[in-house]
Amino acid sequence: MAHRHAAGRRGRRRGVDVVVTSVGELLITAGLIVALFLVWQLWWTGIDAAAKAEVHASAFEQAQVESPQVEGPKYTDNPPAFTPVGYGETIGMLIVPAWYGVTNNNMPVLEGTGNDVLDQAAAGHYRETQQVGELGNFAVAGHRRTNGNSFLRVDRLQEGDEVIIATKDTWYVYVVTGHEIVEPTDVDVIAPVPGDPSAAPTERMLTMTTCHSLTTGEWGNDHRWITHATFSYWMPRSEGRPASVLNDPGVN
Question: What are the residue numbers of the active site?
């Protein structure tokens, strides 16, 4: 009888051991899957997105008016009107001199804000907002984490920093005025007059939107980081370049 009880206890222990071992193996497998997902999400998507951005940038550079490596004159009158492009097409390049040497500071600006646009390491233009240089608000969105980390260092922008939209023939230069952190539902930040959608615009503005937190990133999206800038001056590419990009070898 004692032998039967001992055998039963050994059988139960073996059963428990099998269950514990199986659970442990499942947890290890789940951990590996999560780790691989993070590698794919944070690393591989960036490589893939950067390659797509380079295709847009290279094609756009072929159409650009050559810009001499000298500081050009600043014009503060009404800038040239920009002809709208179709969804997914290239408006120009977004250049952020303050990001030089820190993160990607020169990326395509494409029409639209769908994931198919933003996942190309690009800034996407909100189609319902004004065109670059137009009276009102030229608003763009970009990923902060994954798919190129376009706006990764938006928090480094300070009041007075330049943000430039370079089209094929014109430099449109804006100057940062400040930032705010809002709920995703606060869409008034991209109104012609940010925060006051019923008002008629009297300024030319640029607004950059992205996720707030680097830690929550694509998995949180609980708040948005909004940077506002106002138009400062424009410059024909044929006459030179803004001083802030003269020493940047990545800007054509």
Answer: 143, 211
